[in-house]
Each structure stands twice: as C-alpha cells, then as structure tokens.
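Schema walk-through. Below, the input block comes first and the output block second. Nothing else is stored per chain. Lengths vary across the set, and this one has 482 residues.
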Amino acid sequence: MRAVLRSRSFDTTLPDMARTSAHLLTTAAVVAALVVPAVAQAAPQVGLVADTVLDASALYFVSYDGLVNNNSFQQDAILTYQGRQYATWYTASRNAVIARRTVDSTRWETVVLPHRLTADDSHNVISLGISPQDGTIHVAMDTHNTRLYYLRSAAGLANGAVPWNAAAFGAVQRTLGGMELGAMTYPQFVVTPEGALQFSYRTGGSGNGVNELAEYTGGTWRKLGAWSSATGTYTGPNGVTSTTRNMYLHGLTYDRSGRLHAAFTWREGNSGVLCNPGGLTNHDTGYVYSDDRGRTWRNGAGTLVGTTGGSPVGIGSPGLVADPLDPNHGLMNQESQAVDTSGRPHVVISYVPGRFTQCVTNYAQQRAQYGRTFHVQRGADGRWTKAEVPVPPGHTQRTKIVFDRADNAYLVMPRGKIVSASRASGWTDWATVFDGSSLRAFGEVNVDTSRVAAQGILSVQYQQTSSGTTPSPIRVADFRLG
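--- output ---
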C-alpha cells in the first residue's frame, strides 16, 4: 500500500528555523509531511532487466564514509551518448579505466588509461564528459585540493570515427587542455543545450572555497571564472559568527528551455557555529538559476544575485534560501537534484529532524540511525514545498533523484534501494519499488540520467560491499521505468 504525503505549514524543526528569522523571510514556503491513509494513485514501477559486471575485482577502500568509484558528486561516472553507454572506475591495480557498450548489449569494451590513483581518498573520483561539437571524450580525475589529472580523446571517438583504444586518449595532462586551474576538487562536466561542454570545479577547500566554471568550444577550453563567494558573515544559532564558507552543489542541471539550475548548501569554515563539534557545519538549502549558460545568476524571484568572473553569489545575496535549516542537524552536502519536463527544480536533501534531536553530536552515527530524506520542490507559483519521504535511508550516504519521461520521480537510495512517487499524486505517494538487497551494494550509487531520457532505462552503477581493502565487483544494473 502506498502512503500519501500531505503538505503542512509546519515542521518538526521549526524551533531551529525560528532562530534564523532572516532565512524565513527569504523562503517562499517550508512544508513538512505527515503520513496519512493511502489512496489510489497511478503507481510508477521499476523492472530489473539486466545486471552486468564491469570489473570483478575493482579497487575498494572506505574513506569519508564513501568509495572512490561511487560518489554522489561524480558527474558523470556513467553516461550514454549516441547509442553507446560509457562507464569509468579504478581497478584493483589502481588503474583508471573507461568502458563502453552499445545500449542493447551486455558486453563492455574496456580501455586502461595511463594513470593510477595517487591517494586513498574517496574524493578523487573519475568524471566523464562528451562534447557533441567534436565527439571528444573528456576524463577528469584524482584530485582533492590538488592539481587535476585530465585526458581528452581524439575528435570523433564518441562518434565511432576513431578506434577504441588507449592511444585515442593520448597522454595525461595536469592542466585542462593547457589551462592551469591550480588546486581543485569536484570535477564535473555538463553539456549546454547548444552543445558546449562545461566544466565545474571548486578551488580552495572545505569551509573556504569557491565554485568555478570553464567552457569547451571550438576545441579549446577557456575559463569563465568563479561564481560563488567564500566570504561574508554567517551567525549560528548560538551567536557565533563564521566569515568563510563554501557552496556545495546538489548539481548543475539544464532544463529543456536552456535554464541552468543549481541547488546547494553552505558549509561554514568556523565549527564554533555548531552546538557540538561532532556535527556538520552545513546549513540551509539554497537555489539559483542562470539563463545565459552560467554567466549570470538569479534567485528564485528573478533578481540578479551574481556574475561569474565578477561579483559572485554569496551568503549575503538576497532570496537564496529555499529551505532554511540551522547547522545542528547533520544536513548532507552534494545530494541530488533534477528538473521535471515543466522546468521545475526538485532537490533531495537529508538530515536528522528535530523530533530526534536539536543537536547532532555524532553526524555519522546519528545520520545512519535518525537521518531522513526530504523532497524539496518548486511549484509553478514559485513557492518551495518540502515533504519527508516515509522510507528512511538507514545510511550516512546520499540519495539520487531521476524522473522518467512521464515525470514520475525515483529516488535511488544508498545500497540501491529505489523509492518512487507519481506525478499524478504531486509526488506524494512515495513507496519502495525495489528494495536493493539483492545488489549487495556498499552505499552511494551512480546513475545514468542521459539513458533515462533517451530510452526510459535507468542504469545504476554500484560497487558491492567488501571489507578492509579487499577488491570487490563493480556492476551496472539496468531498470525499465514506467
């Protein structure tokens, strides 16, 4: 039986929100959910159609509660382009590899790239991008506040015009095609509606860093510049101030009209804003958008709040907060976002609600025990609403959100559990449609959103759980959505 969520104009964490009245003024609406008796709805479903092995013995170690082969901020570790699907990971010998298959096949062709992982750090992921302009495949990897390792293939490789082998990728570079980025983290690629390939990355560090953009056109990369600010003053509920921070993105997503959506949370540099040092200094869910491919940024009301390479978006910019939350609830950074066919943004966040505690003292333990997932969406009237998903994640790690072509929503939770809600219900009838236990996945998984759009197939890349540093299989499970 499916549970239906009714929005209400209160939240179990409203005592926290009352202490941040300035944030309340910038929020269109904050709504929590109550579980009420089920009613009949058009229930979306998933069906497992294939589960293939990428590598029977992939690199395995746990750091920052995660695996280097599966992290929420990888954009992308698996993607589809012109009838072929690509995936990337590190082998047990620490080699970076990339594989491809035709979308109707279970046979993968693997190429070993000329790079071995340099650090046992789960931040040092591999991200893939493909330029529709020239068919080049771009690989960014192995960086956490260090210089990038980067490969760009020969033109036409993604179009099948060049043989699929290591020679097609050339030598590893420490710059982005000759452009020096310096120390950076979180390399991500995104394609504009016009076919330009963009590169998102953070310079600086946790609690004191900025988001930057670069763009690849005509075979050349160029910097667009920084668009978020690390400076400004934030005052915690205890009256302690912080003067540095970084913006953690839930994603960068273009809709059909060409609007670029970015939801985020702030992380403060001063842990003194916390009620207890065992928590996370993440607070508030914010939102901005760009109608000029990331050159300028506007808040939900349409007010200009930042210029890339000029005056960046900062903590003091007006109207940013979609859902206010103080830093004492273990709010997770870099979870997930998606945009429906109407161009409306949807964000997945998770934290420990106030009904369990008003002061998280051990974020890993308490998130696993008490953490709950929330669906935050922006309506046609511009108001934000929030509903608790009545299926606890039971894990410290993050959830991914995707939409099928009918705008039904699917949350791919840690360990591969899939929870869905129908558009017909207004995305309120959340229920488990795949429990994930058969996968034996470690935690976070990667999803191929491009194949969902093209074929209605959700491909989930996951690594099976192991112990210590014993290598384990990395696989791709394919689900038909509908």
